[in-house]
Amino acid sequence: MSQSKQLHLNLNFLNAGTFASAWRWPTSQATDYADVQYYVRVAQLAEKGTFDSVFLADFPALSDRPEYRPFQSLEPTITLATIAAATRHIGLIATASSTYNEPYNIARRFASLDHASGGRAGLNIVTTADKQAGRNFGIAQPPAHHVRYERAAEFADVVKALWDSWEDDALVGDKEAARFIDTRKVHPIRHQGTHFSVEGALNVPRPPQGRPIVVQAGGSEDGMDFAARHADAVFSVAHSLPDALDYARDLRGRLVAQGRSPHDILIFPGLVTVIGSTEEEARRREEQLWELVPIEYGLQRLAGILQVDPKSLKLDEPLPDNLKLPADGMQTFFKGALTLAERGRLTVRQLIRAQGGGTGHRIIVGTPEQIAADIEEWFRSGAVAGFNVMPDVISSGLEAFVDHVVPLLRQRGIFRQDYSGTTLRDHFNLARPARLAAPPASIVPKLRSAAGA
Ligand SMILES: Cc1cc2nc3c(=O)[nH]c(=O)nc-3n(C[C@H](O)[C@H](O)[C@H](O)COP(=O)(O)O)c2cc1C
């Protein structure tokens, strides 16, 4: 099976699981969310299933509903570095905010993770739409949606220029001649931009992958343009195959507009899985998980996505019809919720349930055969490179996926029997990028203007 015909699977590792009630499931421990060894065990299980990668989402703030469920807690690159030491192949992707970080720190952190893992690092650049994060950085009102993405674009340019600031053979290490580094092969980037001023070079040698994988996860206009320019992979939201085909067509068109090959990006829609040995058993499991979700949690989360007062949502009535696309919020999830509600003529209670354990992603409830067939259909359509797998409950749901769905995907000839490469780029079948000798155009003009050339 050629690499390019390979299905790709990433584990979207949301602490105890995708359902808000996952931590209350018998197989879950409430303390797991801050136990790094729990993350190591789960990553080892995903590696046993020859997943391409595990992904840790992140928010630089205490989640706004900690009373109900575990949240992203430990700093993700520390968790991934610990996982790197206990695994050999699985890719290690974590989120970093371009709004609440400096590019030099993030370039250094992910270059270090790439060295520590032998080339398995991936950086998911998000703009952090959540309001409460800003307050931890002295910012009362987060920047507007388009400003966040403008900053993210410059941030990505600077991070990549810093990764490229070393030539691969800069290390001399000549003890005789007392020459350690050939400084002619280490280049300052001297970036002067709208949001950042960064001298460089980075103080970490060029990463094993050249550049760690860059991921993006926002489906708005700005989000998709950002992905088309910078991302090697995207985490998307698609509730139907036609939606996924439309999204892929749109995104690939934007890559071509950026001078990239249309297939130079991997698309991973989220897929929440609830597995049973029979469909009835799977439906019963979903029912039990929902019974354990306090309905007010679902209501508050939906109100957060729609940016409305939870009191304005009546559980057994349809959504209010005066909802407006949040100018500064998470546009992807807003659009996803409205599409689901309109298509299914759902009440608020039904919509909360349709939102993949509350996450806004597509959910599939069924047997391993049903799930493998669904995955194969979407993969063979060409709309997706694979899936961002989101087990209902990590502890038992991932085990069921690895033990029962993965073997079926291998039998269908679409998924690897074993790893054939060592780096995340090998798994994603993406080449190691050549070093950009000069910073990208988006950086140079400002240099000239700064220098009054
Ligand atoms: C699979 C997936 C993972 C995400 N992970 C994070 C995350 O870790 N941290 C975060 O702040 N936002 C995360 N987001 C939210 C996106 O970054 C973005 O804010 C959201 O998709 C809305 O983007 P848009 O305004 O461009 O539509 C994620 C979104 C998706 C679909």
Produce the secondary structure layout.
Elements: E1 8-12, H1 36-48, E2 53-56, H2 76-85, E3 91-97, H3 103-116, E4 121-126, H4 131-134, H5 145-163, E5 171-174, E6 179-181, E7 191-192, E8 197-198, E9 213-216, H6 221-230, E10 233-236, H7 241-257, E11 266-275, H8 279-291, H9 295-306, H10 331-344, H11 348-354, E12 362-366, H12 368-380, E13 386-391, H13 394-411, H14 424-428, H15 444-451
Parallel strand pairs: 1-2, 1-13, 2-3, 3-4, 4-9, 9-10, 10-11, 11-12, 11-13
Antiparallel strand pairs: 5-6, 7-8
Flavin mononucleotide is lined by residues 12, 57-59, 95, 126, 128-129, 145, 217-220, 222-223, 235, 237, 270, 330-332, 388.
List the bound ligands.
Answer: flavin mononucleotide
Cα Rg:
22 Å
For the record, the count of structural domains works out to 1
CATH superfamily: Luciferase-like domain
CATH second-level architecture? Alpha-Beta Barrel
